[in-house]
Amino acid sequence: MKKRNYLLGIEMWVVGVSATNAIVFFATGSAISWNIAHFFDEFSRGFGMPIIAVAGLMAITHDYRPSVRMDVLLFAVASVITLAFVTTDFFDDFLPYYNLVMWTLFSVYLAYFIKRLLNVGAGFQAIVLLLGLVTSQAIACVYDFYKIPGDETNIVFNFYTLALCSWAYFMPAVYYAYCALERSCNQGLAVSRPVPFRN
After folding, report:
1. Beta-carbon count within 10 A of 109 CB
2. What tens digit of pLDDT does each residue of 121-179 get?
3. Which of 12, 17, 123, 154 has the most CB atoms in a 10 Å sphere around its CB?
4. Is 112 in a helix, a strand, or coil?
């Protein structure tokens, strides 16, 4: 089954690159890995998931198919704004609230997506995605506003471990939820098509 959903696919790669570089940084202390992880993390929290991934998911919920030019434009604009966010101090006070609002709006859309899954009988995928919604929203709420006691000294059980585990669960949950809803839509189309007459 060819998805050809570049918005959703590339954003999932972005999250993977961010998480991989975060792990490399924690293991080696590499400043380059930290800068890459930080940029892509901010990209995904502020634009990648709340805007780009939602546009990708809307291919199945609203039959929204943007042109390649629009795909490129979305990533380009998001990249430029993210670069401004991470390289200047001007947005420091505003950014935590912006990220939280954007992720909360993303969670609202995911709640709608879960409802669509329930409507087509994909209860298991709905529950799996609901768990991803709850854990990722909890991470978004804690991220810039609450520091776990002992976070700086605890290497194994700290905030970033929880965040990475949450996102590692969240990405396949979104993917399989998308596949389940896509299968249901495709089956609906197949049923609605007239059967050709044969002698």
Report:
1. 17
2. 999 999 999 999 999 999 999 887 777 665 555 555 667 788 888 989 999 999 999 99
3. 12
4. helix
Please state the pTM of the whole predicted model: 0.85
Burial call 33-60: b when 16+ CB within 10 Å, e when fewer: bbebbbbbbbbbbbbbbbbbbbbbbbbb
- What does each C-alpha distance from 36 to 20, 64, 77, 122, 140 come to in angstroms? 10, 31, 18, 37, 20
Q: Cα separations (Å) of 195 from 130, 185, 191, 192, 198? A: 38, 18, 9, 9, 9
For the chain, domain boundaries:
6-190
The C-alpha angle with vertex 126 and arms to 162 and 13, in degrees rounded to 5, equals: 50
Q: Which of 131, 113, 84 is nearest to 8 (CA)?
A: 113
Average pLDDT, stretch 86-101? 92
Question: Would you put residue 106 in left (φ > 0), alpha (ψ -120 to 50) or beta?
Answer: alpha
Q: Are 82 and 98 in contact (CB under 8 A)?
A: no
Give the integer Cα–Cα distance in Å for 31 and 24. 10
